[in-house]
Structures are given as structure tokens and as C-alpha cells.
Amino acid sequence: ACAAFLLTACEGIFTGTEAETLPLAPEGGGYRPVTLQLTVEMSPVALNFRAEQGNHPHEMNKWNAYQASLSRGGQAVASRDFNVNYTGTVDLPPAHPELVITMLTHRVAESGEYTLVIRPLKPPGVDLRNPRLEVRRNVQLPQ
What is the mean pLDDT of residues 104-114? Predict the structure, then answer.
């Protein structure tokens, strides 16, 4: 069951093809809104959060909590909460300092301009460098 969960959680990262990667600008513990052009032909899309963790043992057992919301024309079309955990320990730095987390997957029903907002749900506890948004097109969704 655990392996099935991990495979399902990774579909937005390993399937489909990368459409674009955009830098995320920090703002108030979250990130400034990002405007995206999504088309029906790209569907389904995965919006992935990418960032790098440093070696910060004082961040052990800490995490950042966010809500990712995708809207079109001011109307929310998808929303999901996600966490970024510090994966190192006092003795070992993070095994994989590059984080990749699927924030949202969405079936694009209408082509056009969309806005992604990533807002904090609590004050950040983990320092992240080089945060980016990866848009993957034509990802496989769980059956």
C-alpha cells in the first residue's frame, strides 16, 4: 500500500513533459502570484514546487505549510494544502537537498490565463533557496 501511495504521489513529477519553469518571488512567508497560460491540450497539468534546502540542523522537525490556489478569471478552480519538511538531522544533511513537491494537478477545461497563489498557513520554519514553479503537461492521473 505504501508503494502504491508513493507512485500515485509522484505522477505529477515523473509523468508528462515539462512545459515551463518559473522563479517564485518570496512575499509575506509565501510567494507572489504567478500568471500562467494553460491550454486544454496541456491537460492534465501538474504544478510542482521546486526548491533547495541547505544544511541547517536547527531546522530539524520543522516545516513550512502552504496553500496553493489556482484561479481563472477570479474564480478558484483548484486548491490544495502542502508541506515542505526539513529532511536532515543533526548528524546528516538532507539526503536530497533538491525538493520537488506536486502542489496541484488540474484538468484544464478551458484554455486561457490562470493565476497561481501560494500563501503560508503558518510562519515558515525551513529556509528554502531558489524556489521555482514547474508546470508539467499531459501528466498521468491516478485511476
Answer: 95
Tell me the C-alpha distance between 125 and 136, whole Å.
28
Q: Is 12 helix (H, G, I), strand (E, B) or coil?
A: helix
**Quick one: 127 exposed, middle or buried, by C-beta within 10 A (0-12, 13-18, 19+)?**
middle
Kindly report the pTM of this predicted structure.
Answer: 0.85
pLDDT per residue as tens digits for the range 24-73: 999 999 999 999 999 999 999 999 999 988 766 556 678 899 999 999 99
Q: For 42, list phi and psi in degrees, rounded to 5.
A: -80, -15
DSSP alpha helix (H) spans, 1-136: 2-14
Strand order in the sheet with 75-85: 26-27, 30-38, 112-120, 63-72, 75-85
Residues 107/44, Cβ–Cβ less than 8 Å: yes
